Amino acid sequence: MTMPAPYQVSRFGLIDTSPTGTLAALARRSEGLAIPLAALLAGLLLFGLFLLMLGKSPVEYYALVYKAGFGTAFSWQNTLSRAAPLLLTALCVALPARLGLVVIGGEGAIVLGGVAAGAVAMLIPGGGTGFILMMAMFAMLTGALWIGLVGLMRFYRGVNETIASLLMAYIGIALMNHLVEGPLRDPNSLNKPSTLPLTPEQRIGDLPGMDVHWGLAFGIVACVVAWILIERTRWGFAARIAGGNVRAAQIQGLPVGWLIVGFTALGGAFAGLAGMIEVAAVHGSANASLAAGYGYTGILVAFLARHNPLAIIPVAILLGGFEAANGLVQRRMDLPDATVLVMQGMVFIVILMSETLYGRCKLFTPEKWRAT
Amino acid sequence: MKTPKQTSRRSFLKTSAGVAGMLAFGGLLPQTARASKLSVGFIYVGPKDDYGYNQSHAEGAAAVKQMPGVSVVEEENVPETVDVQKTMESMINFDGVNLLFPTSFGYFNPHILELAPKYPDLRFEHCGGLWSADKHPSNVGSYFGYIGMGQYLNGVVAGHTSKSKKIGFVAAKPIPQVLLNINSFLLGARSVDPNITCQVIFTGEWSLAVKEAEATNALVDQGVDVVTCHVDGPKVVMETAAGRGAYVCGYHANQSPLAPDKYLTGAEWNWAKVYTDMVKTVQSGGQIDNFVRGGLAEGFIKMSPLGPAVTDTARNQFAATQSEILKGGYAVIKGPMKDNKGKVIAGSGQSFAETDVALESMNYLVEGVIGSTS
Asked: pTM for the whole thing?
């Protein structure tokens, strides 16, 4: 039995093409990038066909999307403003997903996090950076309790986390409405029930030199922290094992229950933070406008990013750009508002289908190179 | 003899290159070059064909589109978040609008207030009547209509039509504007028969079709035979009630196509008049008042044409009441009157005309309304 020579003449030339070589490593790594990108392009092409069927020009459409989403300085600020909340709400999906849990009720954590922030601002006098951090902490705690409860029910009672989190989102919104229209209502907010307005010292401003609020920075930091947690710590490693095979993880003695509760709670904390940022940076008080659907768009972002926290950043920016362009497309091409939803839906389905391609493309699977 | 002038291939190419060049250059012209023409932007919180609030504004926008020298851009389904700020700026940057109508109530604070100081040369006109001189920028205006009177007239027709003496109201939230509509609807019906009661159900949301249908069904189950509503899109309420055999009174826009036989009348916004007037003011170089309000007499609201089920006696009282309201100063809330918990809200001789600011902080349901504000 002879060992294969590491360097041999192949169609790649005199390069190490063995399954353990550098090219092989590069090929394996690029799979995770190339397949989603190809799927994204395929989805956009498919949507182009759809536009042609409607008698509209796909070229004009994508030119407008580029112009309004990424073409000017204002377009970038528009895009980043819309991407900011999605970074955090996508984490509420991506973190539990690494444990194999599909949590889709981040919306509940956002609205309750927002109400918690509004309540803190109302009940505790003060302002400044320390106060804002405290407000963030309360909001994160609220979100953590809300989604952590989903994890708790999952582990101890076997309640399906997808259904539970979705239904709890409706309860969360109802609870927010009750609090904002009842005990926490500013009596002067006559026709739009809200909590007491935050003082200027309690609010978050814009990033220096930009018309985008600090939520963007919070979101990017959160994504990086989440990535380090998952990819570079033993808790993340344990979570990935439990996500791969719960029984195996339990046999290994991993604290699966703690992992489930911890990761759902952390995801909820990030969504709660998104709610606090909406209150402190955008609305200036907590009210029904908090339920704007960011929790649901976050599901799309997390799945497109394949639950990789770092990939969430570009995906959220891409979706933010699509949404930023939606208005111009409506106005210039006389297309209905639902157009962008159709595009998102098509891209989403193609990317989900592309999941089946992993390990099947010979180009990215060095083990198959030598078969020919 | 002159040869007939023919277009040579060369001159054709020259001309088309020139035209293409001009078109390309025209596209690159800065917005100021186009600013001599008035450009107006309309923003809606929901779909503009919702048979309701947003449609009423879109009908106003459609009327402005017909005017000479005006271009109109519209965007629908814009949530009351940072999205609406960016939509306004996108219209300013890409379409060069100089007059904006962000129509949803929740766009005002903080979104319009945030943006208006950044664009002092532009005009922001908001529907809802929240502007006050000491707090808000001077390039922001607000306008609203006394549509409670329309619900009062709805009530008059409902009072004549109801056999069970029970009428119903599907409402979004217990806020002053909505409470005034509920109270007006009942008091209109009681001007016909003081034994009529009105059951109200709050859905808690401005647009939540499932709950609106449930509420309507619950009302009809309780014997209610005339239904009206105050939600963003009355379509579901109208279709559900009419499908169950109840009569309906419309709100926001004309919903008679949804239930031609059961539709009695409806309280509609008449934004077409308001918006074309405002655009005319701007075109003639004038300044729109920062605080504009009006009712039936001023043409801010109008009633849908009476439906086939309305009896002659009802028509007569409807016409008589309408002409009373058109005189101005009509009071729906007048003493002695109690709320539905027995508390006196107006002593004898006391009355609140349609323009009375006290009505804008209404927090009660009058006697005869079955339901609670909290």
From this structure: 0.85
